Amino acid sequence: MVHAPPRPTPGLPPVRVNLYSDTQTRPTAAMKAAMMEAEVGDEQAGLDPTIDALCERMAALMGKEAAVFLPTGTMCNQISILTHCRPGDAILAHRTAHILTAEGGAAAALTGAQIMPLEGADGQYSAETLAAAFNGGSRYDMPQTLVEVEQTANLGGGTVWPLAALNAVADMAHARGISTHMDGARLMNAVVAAGVPVAEMVAGYDSVWLDFTKGLGAPLGAVLCGSASFIDRAWRWKQRMGGSLRQGGICAAACLYALDHNIDRLAEDHANAAVLARGLAQIEGLKVKAPQTNLVYFDTTGTGLTAGEVTAALRQHGVMMSVMGPHLGRACTHLDVTRTQVDEAVQTMRQVLAA
Ligand SMILES: *Cc1c(COP(=O)(O)O)cnc(C)c1O
């Protein structure tokens, strides 16, 4: 359950600290300058050199043959599902996966695929859990054609799948002839936190994408990578869905800028999240999950308030956090949040819960 962000309301103070989501970053002056200078052309006709440069760079980074630029991560997931699956097919994914909980039922609506939810702590599942969910492959069974993981696992707490677990799941899927897909909305957060090279982290996955509008600070864009044949087929879905662009290089330039400037600094967001979590954990009534990356989940049950009540009170004091469940709140650090603002947020939480 992800609630819409509160709209600007007359009478509410301006937002001083925005921990609502890493999607709320705004392009910096330097990023905008890079966008202004982008060489552009008609992408649908293969004539945008900046999009081509971004796709080439992303394919090389991920260790895949090819890549395609898309407006959003949701479109990357859905085009991947359309490309991997047929109507009636089953996708195996964690029960908290974004494709199951936050894409408007798109796998069913667009592909006609159904998602089999898997259990496991922290938004992750084991190769054994996956194996136990495999059916017999008879004509009575759903054809199971895709296994999906999320790196980092958002609703799992921004947790990082260890490399060995990713490989064990991918090997188990491939041994059954099942394709693998990685939702890499925050893949670079995982790469920075784990210190594992990205190509190694995604090696077991037939398709993988990265969002540039989460911690990387771009206004628009995600890149989906895979084999040349997969990307050819994905391109047809991009065209069918009206996702082919014209002078999209303006946005691809922001993504190239983000690759050069905004990856290593994700470590700062992780350090800020750790400071935030430690501060919140000292406040009576709050139960805080220790963050592995930039997402801090906290349970408000012990305060006697719902997460909605707590975030509404924070908002009255200019601090924004999000509601992820009746008593589950989330604070997200990103490049528009400073250490001072993190300290301010902790102080405000203390003040609000004391009142
Ligand atoms: C945000 C997100 C998406 C969707 O990306 P958009 O660019 O917002 O469409 C998919 N998966 C996860 C895990 C996400 O956090």
CATH topology of the largest domain: Aspartate Aminotransferase, domain 2
- Please give the alpha-carbon distance between the first and last residues: 28 Å
In total, the number of strands is: 13
Q: Which range does the strand content fall in?
A: 15-25%
Count of helices?
14
The averaged pLDDT comes out at 96
Which residue ranges are poorly predicted, with pLDDT under 50 across at least 5 consecutive positions?
A: none
Main CATH class of the largest domain: Alpha Beta
**What Rg, in angstroms, do the CA atoms define?**
21 Å
CATH superfamily of the largest domain: Type I PLP-dependent aspartate aminotransferase-like (Major domain)
The figure for the number of domains is 2
The CATH architecture of the largest domain can be named as 3-Layer(aba) Sandwich
Order of helices and strands: EHHEHEHHEHEHEHHEEHHHEEHEEEH
Structural class: alpha/beta
Bound molecules: pyridoxal-5'-phosphate
Can you walk me through this structure?
41% of the residues lie in helices and 16% in strands. It is α/β, with parallel strands linked by helices. The chain has two domains: 17-26 and 265-354, Alpha-Beta Complex (Aspartate Aminotransferase, domain 1), CATH 3.90.1150.10; 38-261, 3-Layer(aba) Sandwich (Aspartate Aminotransferase, domain 2). The protein has a seven-stranded mixed beta sheet, with helices on both faces. Helix 1 (29-36) packs across helix 11 and helix 6 runs parallel beside helix 7 (163-175). Bound molecules: pyridoxal-5'-phosphate (PLP). The site of pyridoxal-5'-phosphate has 12 residues, from helix 3.
